[in-house]
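Write out this protein's structure.
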Amino acid sequence: MTANEKRLHRDAGLILKAALRAAHAGNAVRRYLRKVRNVVQVGGVRYDLRNFDRVFFLGIGKASVAMAAAVAEIVGPELQGGLVITKHGHGGKLPKTLRLIESAHPVPDAAGAQAASEVIAFLRELNARDLLIVTVSGGASALLPAPVPPITLEQKGRTTDLLLKAGADIFELNAVRKHLSLLKGGQLAALAYPATVVSLLLSDVIGDPLDVIGSGLTAPDPSTFAEATSVIDRYGLWKRIPASVRARLEGGRVGKFPETPKPSDPLFDTVQNLVVGSSRLALTAAAEEANRLGYKPLILSSTMQGETREVARVHAEILREVRNSGSPLAPPACLLSGGETTVTVRGSGKGGRNQEFALSAAIAIEGLRDVLVASAGTDGTDGPTDAAGARADGGTMRRAEALGYDLRDHLERNDSYSVFEALGDLIKTGPTGTNVMDVHLLLAR
């Protein structure tokens, strides 16, 4: 690796760290939640605590511990209790009034199902004199699974897995999951009614739609059973999904089961939903750090989506243009994008969408001098691995081949982890306390 390549790798690490600091979930909460004497202010809405007998907390998602700590710090002794559900290994220190439950992501487990049962029982005890502060962050859908009987956790998981492997995006996935659940699609808010609900959302979804973040636990659901069935149709999965799921969706489409709560439902009169953090925040901080390091920064998009390997190739071609013509920026340049791409799984290899992004880009930029591509999940995890993502430069393919790795073969088998592990180019951050989708970073010196 050349001196310039080493510098690019170092700078990429510093830029990604800046993005993670800015998007930290605790900081996001502190920007929007205030308390002055007896009044809690959320955004522009004021809640006089003298109008409530009890204040409770419910945190769900991979960043819920950081968000819970911030809420407890701000609200103080008036916060009487609550539950915090996060991913295994993402726990941390919490006030004694809050109980931590860890469950699995991305594949739900029995601990998540038990957590959902406890949450449902907790919500049913609330009344009109209660204030419930909810935080939702990435992974909430999987961490709190509550399938509608007789659908089992395994059957719902099987359906989710089929959709993911078929390449369904988060909008399609949630349209189906919300209609198989007791909590998603506004049903958590319905169970909390008539309590007042304040929901602080850390967005890990393109465009920050309230009904899709965390599968819209506290937001009205505009999707329908008809839309859910059309997703199954689109991917040709009717014969492969479990019979119980098929019966639920088909029954709902003909009116046999009630729809999820819609925007006109009066239960939402006492619910406030507020997005407190998103991809744009992380990208802006990354751009500022890149500028400090001497690069000219440009944010390409905060809503990037599509097939991972194809999106990576497009990014690589933009980087090639920067190197060859100085357009849209002349080196030293830092181009950034954020969003959430999808991987159509064809092989049985180990990796995640960010590692696959770097692998596809590595092939496309082979031989290009003084450039680097990095991609990382802001939550610190990428697929079922211990890495957040990976880095690749113009010499990655050459170095991998010297070790016996055929990058094109590994890409076809969705096996990116082993390549970058051997090269020492995995990005490992551990749990980050945030989750605002992915950051893609292009550097040219």
